[in-house]
Design brief:
Length: 137
């Protein structure tokens, strides 16, 4: 009978600890300037910032460089995460997504398995930047 009470007390304590855990808040950097899109010409270089996209472990914002009708660079304006595992997976996923976007010249590339939230945030920020620049493939 005492084993039952000990098991119930341990379960109740574990449940209280689990439900009271709060993930840390990550502040968005107010120093990041959102670039406005200018009308594009054939060889004009535009740098456009995407939307800040968040997920449960962090947030990111992309900066897209367009030369004429080509995506010439995708870089991070902001990237923050509180979870070491998420940071490791996200870093690998971000390199892969950047490579895919630059090689395929479009925003609808495949997401990276194991980094679904990061991939979703990346692609949404990328699409927001391309929409701001009125870029269509």
């Amino acid at each position: 009978m005492t084993r039952l009470f000990v098991a119930l007390a341990a379960t109740a304590c574990a449940l209280v600890l689990l439900l009271s855990y709060r993930t840390p808040r990550i502040r968005h950097d107010p120093q990041v300037v959102h670039a406005a899109a200018a009308p594009s010409s054939t060889n004009q270089v535009e740098v456009v910032a995407g939307a800040v996209e968040g997920w449960s472990y962090g947030h990111l914002q992309l900066r897209v460089t367009l030369t004429g009708r080509r995506i010439t660079d995708v870089s991070m304006a902001q990237f923050a995460t509180t979870n070491p595992m998420s940071r490791r997976r996200s870093s690998a996923a971000l390199k892969r997504l950047r490579s895919e976007v630059l090689s395929q010249q479009r925003a609808d590339v495949d997401m990276v398995s194991g980094a679904t939230y990061t991939s979703t945030a990346y692609l949404h920020s990328l699409q927001a930047a391309l929409d701001a620049a009125r870029w269509h493939r």
